[in-house]
Amino acid sequence: MTDRVTIVGGGLVGALLGVVLAKRGASVRIYERRSDMRKAEVAAGRSINLAMSDRGLRALEVAGIAHDIRAISIPMHGRVMHDVHGNQTYQPYGLQGQFINSVSRAELNKTLLTVAERHGVEIIFDARCLNIDLESASATFLLHTGESITCHGDVLFGADGAFSAVRSRMQITDKFDYSQTYLEHGYKELHIPAGDLGAFQLEQHALHIWPRHSFMMIALPNLDGSFTLTLFFAHKGATSFDAIQTKEEVEQFFAEQFPDAVPLMPTLVEDFLANPESSLVTVRCSPWVMSDRVALIGDAAHAIVPFYGQGMNCGFEDCRVLMECLDHTNEDWPSALQLYQRMRKPAGDAIADLALANFIEMRDKVADPRFLWRKKIESWLFSAYPTKFIPLYTLVTFSDDVPYNEAKRIGLAQDMLMEQLMDIGSVIEDWTSDEAKEAMNSIMSALPDIIIDSGFPD
Fold first, then answer.
1. How far is residue 10's CA from residue 26's CA, in Å, rounded to a whole number?
2. Cα end-to-end distance, the chain, whole Å
3. Are residues 62 and 150 in the same domain?
4. CA 205, CA 146: separation in Å to the nearest integer?
5. Is 79 contained in some domain?
6. Are residues 119 and 21 in the same domain?
7. Taking 70 as the threshold, does the pLDDT of residue 366 lie above it?
8. Residue 376 and residue 431 share a domain
9. Do 120 and 55 fall into the same domain?
10. How many domains does the chain contain in total?
11. Strand 88-92 relative to strand 78-82: parallel, antiparallel, unpaired?
12. Parallel, antiparallel or unpaired: strands 100-103 and 78-82
C-alpha cells in the first residue's frame, strides 16, 4: 500500500489508525488540534479511566502493541458494590480468568502517539481543522503560528471525536442524517489517593460501584495505587450538581451517600468544587463515507455514553475491521470503505443502545435481589449450555469477534428466554433444586445452538 492517508484527530482512535495503516505501507499524516500531550500537562478532571476489554486488545494485537498496553493496565476481575452503609458485595465479571483492564486514557494516548511516530507516521500538533474538501479528500488546517496549510491525500479519516470537524463538513451536504442527544446526567471526576507506600485503599482488581438508583459513583484503579472516581449525577434538580454548590453541601451529601469512600478522599471538597462538570452525549449519523475517499471513525461516527466501557473498544474495533475490509477487497479503498460502513454502522448503533441501557443496570439493578438471582441462573446456563446461552455481558465484553448488533439481537432473545425460565414455579421456589434444573434442562435441550453472523459477505 502506497496510499497517502490523512487522519484528522490524534486521540486514541486516530493514533491507532495511524499505526495499523503505516504498518501496511501507507504514508500517514495525523493532524491534532491539541498540543503534544507528551510534553504538556493533561487537564485534571476529564480523564475517566478506560476499561480495556477483549475487543480493544485484539485491535492492539493487530497493531503489535497489546503487550505494551497490558504493561500500563490493571486487571479487574469483577465489580464491588458499595451500599449506603458501606457494605460491599463482589460480583465476578465472567468465567474464571476473564477480566477487563483499567488503563489511563492519557498514558494510553501517549503510548499510541509514540508508537505511531516509531512507524513513520508524521504528527502535526496545534493544527485546527478549518475545512474539508470532500471530493478531493483534502483538508485545510490553521497552525499555532497563524499559518494555514492544505493537506492533499488519497483518503481522509475524521477521527476527531464527538464534535468532529470532518463530520460537521459532511452535515452540510444533502441527505446526511445526524442526531446528538444528551443524558440528563453528567459526570465529575474525583480521586482516592494511594495509601502508605503506594498501597491501594480499595480492592485493586475490581471496578467499584456505589449504585444509588438515580445516580452512581464508580472507581477504577491506577498503577500508582490511587483510584479515579467518577460521579454520574443529574445536571439539575433536587439531587444534582446544580443543588450542591458549597463545602458544607458537598460534605453532607457524600457523608450520607458514600460514607465508606469519604475517609479515603482527603481532597473531596476541592476536587468536587474545582473539577469540571461534563456532559454525556450520544451521536448517531449516516453516511459515514462520502466520495469513497472521506470516512468517519471512532467517536466521530458513533459517540456513546461510557456505561458499557466500550467507547474506546468500539473505536479500536473500527480500526481492526477496517483492516479486514482492506484485506477482503484487496486494498481497493472505495470498496473497503463501503464494506466498513455496512458492517460498522449497525454495530455502532447497537452499542449506543446497549450503553444507554447499561446505565440503568449499573445505577439501579446491580444491588436488586431479582437481578442478582437472574445473574446466578445465567451463569449456570452458560456453564451447562455454552453453545446455546451466552450472557449479553460476555458477548459484548469477552468476545472479540461478535458484532455488537449480533450481541444485541442475541441478548434480546435471551431476555425472553430468561423471563420464561424465571416464571417456572420450581425455579422461583429454589432454582438450584433438581426439579428446577430438570425443568430448565427440558427447555434448554430443545433450543438450537447460537448462530452468529460476522457481517462479512461470503
1. 17
2. 24
3. yes
4. 48
5. no
6. yes
7. no
8. yes
9. yes
10. 3
11. antiparallel
12. unpaired
Instruction: Please state whether 25 falls in left (phi above 0), alpha (psi between -120 and 50) or beta.
Output: left
**Does the pTM of the predicted model rise above 0.85?**
yes
450 within some domain: no
Question: pLDDT tens digits, residue range 132-163?
Answer: 999 999 999 999 999 999 999 999 999 999 99
Cis preceding linkage at 266, omega within 30: no
Whether residue 122 sits in one domain with residue 19: yes
For residue 300, the enclosing domain spans 4-74+104-180+281-359
Other beta carbons within 10 Å of 146 = 6
Q: Which CATH number characterizes residue 176's domain?
A: 3.50.50.60
Would residue 83 count as lying in a domain? no
Contact (Cβ atoms closer than 8 angstroms) between residue 194 and residue 204: no
- Of 279, 309, 335, the position where a domain reaches its end is 279
Is the pLDDT at 43 greater than 80? The verdict is no
As a whole number, mean pLDDT of residues 3-29 equals: 97
Domain boundary among the residues 260, 279, 298 is at 279
Residues in the chain: 458
Residue 50 forms part of a structural domain: yes
Mean pLDDT (the chain) is: 94
